[in-house]
Design goal:
This protein is of the alpha/beta class. The chain folds into 2 domains: 167 residues, Rossmann fold; 68 residues, Alpha-Beta Plaits, CATH 3.30.70. The protein is 37% helix and 17% strand. The strands form 3 sheets. It has a 5-stranded parallel beta sheet with strand order 2-1-3-4-5, sandwiched between helices. Strands 6-9 form a two-stranded antiparallel ribbon. Strands 7-8 form a two-stranded antiparallel ribbon. Bound molecules: flavin mononucleotide (FMN). The site of flavin mononucleotide (FMN) has 25 residues, from helix 1 and strand 4.
Length: 287
């Protein structure tokens, strides 16, 4: 259908990045030319030629990270270029997450994009309540097949758009307040004596919010509260002074999860017991 696929993504702790890379591999398998850019370095002009823009981001407080909204606002207008939006969450397609793509899609449409496809992928939850290693391992295992299925739907021209409940739209819109809180969160991060000045936090920050000054990380005013710096610090030296209980005590490391043994004959219903895991259960089992 199209020649080029431009993939643009935001990822704090690596889940969305894995999904974006999986899309690149799957599109290349079917002969597409693919570019992959992080939102902070992504172009703002995409020309009018046939092609697809695929935007991926983690669900943060039932919405997209602020940087994603800012990028769309800076995008040059187009006439009818095709776009697809993929959200990546810890909880799956359930209330209030169902509205997490609505504002992004509306903004893309105002810029002249035709959004024909949207989907929720599920990756391990890095906030408040961890998915647990066995479930996280199953989610990582499921990713390539989920992405391959999405790519074949996109290639066939399949169109899918959701209708989020009004209450979910309201919650998602109210989550803008958390985006303001994100700036304070970033400013609150204390650098303890455990810091070894490796600069990994500055290198990996998807918002470009951390700079190294004489060996010390300095936090600016554009934190997106993705938790990447906190979980990614090799010595655990970064300690936020607010929302402490939302940070996973056990940390969050996808590379370690990938190395864990894949559970055989896993009882997914048992691993996803309770209302808050309903969306994950549906994602893995279809029920
Ligand atoms: C501040 C914050 C808010 C989050 N809010 C939600 C949410 O509203 N719904 C949800 O399902 N997951 C939520 N998550 C979990 C992430 O969407 C999920 O772990 C995702 O896989 C992270 O992607 P990443 O590894 O690319 O950053 C939140 C995570 C963070 C850090």
């Amino acid at each position: 259908m199209e020649n080029n696929v431009d993939i643009v993504y935001f990822s704090g702790t690596g889940g969305t990045e894995r999904a974006a890379k999986c899309f690149k591999t799957s599109f290349e398998k079917v002969g597409r030319e693919v570019t992959l850019s992080k939102v902070k370095d992504a172009p703002i002009s995409f020309g009018e030629e046939d092609g697809l823009i695929l935007l991926l981001y983690p669900v943060l407080a039932a919405n997209a990270p602020r940087l994603v909204h800012d990028w769309i606002e800076r995008l040059e207008s187009v006439k009818g270029k095709r776009a697809a939006v993929i959200s990546v969450s810890g909880g799956g397609e359930m209330s209030p997450n169902t509205a997490c793509r609505a504002a992004v899609i509306r903004k893309l449409e105002r810029k002249g994009f035709v959004v024909t496809y949207e989907e929720m992928l599920v990756m391990p939850a890095n906030f408040i309540k961890f998915s647990g290693v066995p479930l996280s391992r199953l989610l990582l295992e499921a990713l390539p097949k989920k992405v391959e299925a999405a790519v074949s739907r996109l290639e066939s021209g399949f169109v899918t758009r959701s209708r989020p409940l009004p209450v979910d739209r309201l919650i998602s819109a109210a989550a803008k307040l958390e985006q303001l809180g994100a700036v304070s969160f970033g400013k609150s991060i204390a650098v303890t004596d455990a810091c070894i000045s490796c600069g990994r936090c500055a290198e990996n920050c998807p918002s470009g919010n951390i700079t190294m000054l004489e060996g010390n990380p300095i936090f600016g005013s554009s934190c997106n509260l993705c938790m990447g710096c906190i979980y990614g610090c090799p010595t655990g030296a970064l300690k936020p002074q607010m929302m402490k209980s939302a940070v996973l005590k056990e940390g969050f490391n996808l590379e370690a999860i990938e190395k864990a043994e894949l559970p055989q004959n896993a009882d997914i219903n048992a691993l996803t017991r309770g209302y808050s895991w309903k969306g994950v259960r549906k994602y893995l089992t279809g029920d």
